[in-house]
Design goal:
24% helix; 3-stranded antiparallel β-sheet; single chain; 5-stranded mixed β-sheet; 353 residues; alpha+beta
Amino acid sequence: ATTKCRECRGRPSTCATCAVRAHLHLPFHWLFHWNGKFFDRRDLADFGYVIYLGHHGSPCAHIPTTSTPVTFTIVHDNGVHSCKLHYCHCAGCPHQMSQLVRADLFPATLERTETAFTCDVLERFHLDFDISKRSVQDFVRILEQLSPPDQDSGRVKDRYRDFLLASRIHRFLISEKRAGRRHGIVIPGRDPDDLSVPCFTCPIPHFNLPEDWKDIPEELRYIHRMIFCGDGNYSLQKKTKPSDENDIALTTGRAYFVRETDEMRDFLNHKFHVKPAKETSNIGDVGVTCTGFKIPRAQRTGKFRYVDSSGVMSFLCDHVLFRPGATIDLHTTETWGQNDYAFAGALQGTSEL
């Protein structure tokens, strides 16, 4: 008995062959093998374990005799694993990408895939990011520390960039699933492509209001009102720096930010990049007469010189949930033009109220 698995609680030490046989459906456990001096942490693939797709762990009967297993790097929530993998070769079998997804393996690339992430590690990071705000880099470094170094190179394969992309796409797909997009679930008054989390406490006609809500006495109509509040946040800045032109947003206009149009873009570009003939204040070409509106005049416009976005402006309901399509980037200070676009987004779906 030279091999043991610490993740299989209570299981006695066995030989390597028996350990591999006992882990038919547990491909990502670490085996501790006695090397003559100490128990060395090893992958199952080091002892001949091969992951077979499409047949519940059993080999496909149509694998060519000359075919060799694909060397795969699979990242699980207990580390980075070097595995051997065989696809299904049956007639009419799913595409290799589909086979990986059905096995709960999220591929890192679409072509010549040699790296995948288990759904467990992606869900763990999603939860970890939401609660502890841990970055992708820190999370991947923890996974590397949980993994034994490669016997040839003496280091763990870096999968930071792959995980960065895969986790982003995974979160997007989860948001589509939770928003009911793939099931055709649409809340009345909402954009069919919307991915944001709605406020179910706010009155929504044909959803959470009685059929005769319009017949309510005038003195009680305030019950079905909606209260919005808007404010700017200058901490959420986007610095001016080189960026990847292929790095595009996956949820443009489908969540909390205002859906940009050519008309809106032209108006804001003219407002902030064309100097008016005569300025009456530092927030645009319209004078401010409200003595309580001091924030724009208190901002030093010079501090926004090296930012593409100086902050954001958002509208919330009185239940403290962000309204969909009601957040907009600021170019300098809070201005009426940006405020109007954000407020118009907050009013979407409220025409009957």
